[in-house]
Amino acid sequence: MTTTDSRPAFGGFHHVAVTASDVEASVAWYQRVFGMDRLPPRFPHHGPDAKGYATVLVEPETGMCIGVEHHPDNDGAGADERRCGLDHIAFAMLSRDHLDTWAAWLDSLGIAHSGVVDAGDPVPYSALVFRDPDNVQLELFFMDQG
């Protein structure tokens, strides 16, 4: 419901999409790390200059989706949060303890990460940072809201 004094409502967060230099390698990586299911169809890009497609992955417990994007004119340069565009993707954790479990999981997969960082400025939070095959920064994040 909207009025002239308020913005339209959101229905929730649906997906995030990352551009990959090798879609199949990135899809396999996201499936291995996050246990995501691949939707069977490729999703074509739309618009007058659209040439690429997305492969969509779904996390079965939350329904959260990640689109892994193919753009034929991708130059293969890795992501860099210092340039305009995506800085990072953060996934909410249910507890601080889950970050330790994730750190151990990433270690078992041989994926480099920051280790769990507990910070107090500007507010108390904890984070675990790592990167996908194209250098997109991923963050597992816990902030006690209680």
Task: Write the topology of this structure.
Elements: E1 15-19, H1 23-34, E2 37-44, E3 53-58, E4 65-70, E5 89-92, H2 96-109, E6 117-119, E7 125-131, E8 137-142
Parallel strand pairs: 1-4, 5-8
Antiparallel strand pairs: 2-3, 3-4, 6-7, 7-8
Tell me what the structure shows:
This protein has 2 helices and 8 strands; from the N terminus they run E-H-E-E-E-E-H-E-E-E. It has helices at residues 23-34, 96-109; strands at 15-19, 37-44, 53-58, 65-70, 89-92, 117-119, 125-131, 137-142. The strands form 2 sheets. Strands 1-4-3-2 form a 4-stranded mixed beta sheet, with helices on one face. With 146 residues, it is an alpha/beta fold. It has 2 domains: 13-72, Roll (2,3-Dihydroxybiphenyl 1,2-Dioxygenase, domain 1); 87-146, 2,3-Dihydroxybiphenyl 1,2-Dioxygenase, domain 1 (Roll), CATH 3.10.180.
CATH superfamily heading of the largest domain: 2,3-Dihydroxybiphenyl 1,2-Dioxygenase, domain 1
- The CATH architecture of the largest domain can be named as Roll
Secondary structure: helix percent = 10-25%
Work out the radius of gyration: 17 Å
Tell the overall outline: globular
Q: Output the CATH class name of the largest domain.
A: Alpha Beta
Strand percentage, roughly?
A: 25-35%
